[in-house]
Amino acid sequence: MGHVEPDGAASGAPAPPLKRGTVAPPHPVWPLWWALKREFPIWKAPASWLGTPGSWTYFGNDFVTGLRRNASTARAFALLDATPDDVEAVTALAALNLKRHERMFQFVALLYISIPVTVILGLAEVMPDGLIAVFRDHQSTIWQLAAVMTLAVGAYLIGVWRARQLLAVIELWRIERRLSPADGGAV
What we know:
Elements: E1 3-4, E2 10-11, H1 29-38, H2 45-51, H3 64-69, H4 71-82, H5 87-126, H6 128-137, H7 139-176
Helix pairs in contact: 1-5, 5-6, 5-7
């Protein structure tokens, strides 16, 4: 699959990978994507759970009106309005980003929660007294390890939530502009 040259012409050569510190990305959609994702950072997620209009509509049957009222949505709409030609590409990027976030979250949840719990339950069956002794002797370390693993899984879960929120904002913009949804369904 080729890439788009700076003059807009398609090339048969594969797109070069982005390198750290790259100033000019290989496709014009990247600046829009980077600007949009800055509106939905993971570190601001806890504050947005209680401090945005969208957070107060997580009850009932309308989760869209509050999302539309959020300041981050308004800023994202302004970015999308400024570059409507890049909406298809940025929608595809948001969908790909969400898919990758979901897969990574599933992997991390499996690795950090399911596997350790399975091992602990197996050891509890085979050697319950030994397991209790290990927990008793290393209680502080075990609690710290459990906390770190839980926080890591939580961070990935927040990333999935923000990726979904970003895609939902783009879909909302498309609906308000009477564009077909990204999945090909009718508006």
